[in-house]
Design brief:
The protein is of the alpha+beta class and 508 residues long. The protein folds into 3 domains: 4-69 and 469-506; 74-96 and 163-294 and 444-458, no CATH class; 101-156 and 297-441, no CATH class. It is built from 11 helices and 15 strands. The strands form 6 sheets. Strands 5-6-7-8 form a 4-stranded antiparallel beta sheet. The chain has a 3-stranded antiparallel beta sheet with strand order 9-10-11, covered by helices on one side. Helix 6 (284-321) runs antiparallel to helix 10 (427-467).
């Protein structure tokens, strides 16, 4: 029944509740600068009431729960925004490196060397009998190929670097996934997983880090477990207390865009079965590196190959049909491949139109690296076929036709119709469009990265307004619970005095 003992219990419950609430406030204040920390609230509720006669008495207060203040939708949006931002930033940084490949100081760039080659052709056309000018033409052609091959190899090196970065990111994905699964396991072993706010915050922070590396989708099930899939649902990453394993497997059957680069696979464990998720990964640092490796850089390489094929094919077509300085038709291609030519282009390179089983994306692939100036012409520049008629040493009609290639609008095959059906050009216009494309892509990804960063900042501010610790609010709550503690202590003191008086008065 109600009495002094009941009153003492009520006072003690007030003291305990106030003390526990002060502990929660202290924890918030201590973590005011902790990244990813969500402020916590002490949820108080009345104790079970007691009936006595026709009356119902309260029995005090208890700390029902400690609730973390967080918005799951905002957390999801921030994770996805971080993936988009880091993916765009990775592409931008990669393209900044790539753009240096196409820089031209007026003497050593591809454009400069291409113009120098045609200038040398013009000089030979002006004086076809001058062997020194022919020798200069051969040197200019070699310089053009060397420049293109050096820059092309730089693109290949950038692809290899991106592939290495993908492999380096895989262990980080596995580590973070395992840590999230371990936290799920920790929470699953607790009586009330929802009350372990610090573990929940740590798990969310790990998910944010994972999202910066690879695009993910997260959701928390009704058991409080965070489950994670790769973007688009390509594969699970974390299911409850189990983490999947990401691995890389070297592709021994080279696709058109990435010969012998690594494929990214997922498996329940490292031994398989494996699910290839390479094409599904488009966000995060890994998505950016894969896009650089498999799409952006190969597209620039393809256009360089098409340009090289256009120059080589059209020069070879004319040179093989013309006449050398001795007035003889030697049927020599000016540019050749290591294994010789077929239809005026290197035999080792796939040339459209495509036969059955050929992959169009492989058209002209590796053309730049395959070409060299015909060794016979290098040894004897008089074999260059400047003349268009037999036995006319001073004739220049064929050389003039070669010079005209510089301004021809149908010299580059960019559609896969075949070199004889080329519809693009001139060479300089095609090259300028390629350089412009690189610059535009770089600028666009920089803009995207900036925009995503701004979105992420706005979302983070919004989350902070909900979840972050505000010292002014905590100070106000501190005073509130301090006063409550003091009042409960005073109440307990009064009950204690009454009890003492009762005992002394009755002599008990």
């Amino acid at each position: 029944m109600p009495g002094l003992t009941a009153g003492l219990n009520i006072g003690l419950s007030g003291l305990t509740a106030a003390q526990n609430s002060l502990d929660v406030i202290g924890h918030n204040i201590a973590n005011v600068n902790t990244p990813g920390y969500s402020r916590q609230l002490a949820q108080l509720s009345t104790n079970t009431s007691m009936n006595w006669g026709n009356l119902t008495y309260g029995t005090g207060v208890n700390l029902k729960s400690i609730q973390g203040v967080r918005d799951q939708l905002l957390n999801l949006q921030i994770t996805q925004s971080a993936s988009q931002q880091s993916g765009a930033e990775t592409r931008y940084q990669g393209l900044q490196t790539v753009s240096s490949v196409f820089q031209d100081d007026g003497t050593s760039g591809i454009s400069s060397q291409l113009n120098a080659f045609f200038t040398a052709l013009q000089k030979v056309a002006g004086q076809p009998e001058d062997v020194s000018l022919r020798t200069n033409l051969v040197g200019s052609a070699q310089n053009l190929l060397t420049t293109m091959q050096t820059r092309y190899q730089a693109l290949r090196d950038a692809q290899t670097s991106a592939d290495s970065q993908v492999s380096a990111l895989v262990p980080q994905v596995n580590t973070l996934a395992q840590q999230i699964a371990d936290l799920n396991k920790k929470l699953a072993g607790e009586v009330n997983p929802q009350s372990d706010n610090d573990a929940i915050d740590q798990r969310q922070a790990l998910a944010d880090q994972l999202g910066q590396i690879v695009g993910i989708q997260t959701y928390v099930d009704n058991k409080g477990m965070m489950n994670i899939n790769l973007e688009g649902g390509a594969s699970p990453v974390v299911i409850g207390t189990s983490a999947y394993t990401m691995s890389t497997i070297q592709n021994t059957t080279p696709p058109a865009t990435a010969p012998f680069f690594n494929s990214v696979v997922m498996s329940p464990n490292a031994s398989g079965p494996f699910t290839d998720v390479t094409k599904a990964i488009t966000s995060g640092q890994m998505g950016g590196q894969l896009d650089l490796r498999d799409n952006l850089i190969p597209n620039y390489e393809k256009q360089m190959d098409e340009l090289a094929a256009g120059v080589a094919y059209n020069m070879n077509l004319l040179n093989s049909s013309g006449y050398s300085l001795d007035g003889t038709q030697h049927n020599l291609d000016f540019f050749v491949g290591g294994a010789g030519n077929t239809n005026h282009l290197p035999t080792s390179v796939q040339v459209p139109p495509d036969a059955v089983g050929q992959v169009p994306a492989n058209d002209y692939k590796g053309m730049v690296l395959a070409l060299k100036v015909n060794s016979l012409i290098v040894a004897d520049p008089s074999l260059f076929a400047a003349a268009g008629v037999a036995g006319a040493a001073g004739d220049n009609t064929n050389a003039k036709a070669m010079v005209a290639l510089q301004t021809s609008g149908s010299t580059v095959d960019a559609t896969g119709a075949g070199p004889g059906a080329a519809a693009s050009g001139p060479f300089t216009t095609f090259l300028t469009a390629l350089i412009t494309k690189v610059g535009t892509d770089t600028k666009n990804w920089n803009t995207t990265a900036t925009n995503q960063e701004n979105i992420g900042t706005a979302l983070t501010k919004q989350r902070d307004s909900v979840s972050a610790v505000d010292l002014d609010t905590e100070a106000a709550n501190l005073i509130t619970y301090q006063r409550g503690y003091q009042a409960s202590a005073r109440f307990v003191s009064v009950i204690s005095q009454l009890t003492d008086q009762l005992i002394n008065s009755l002599g008990v």
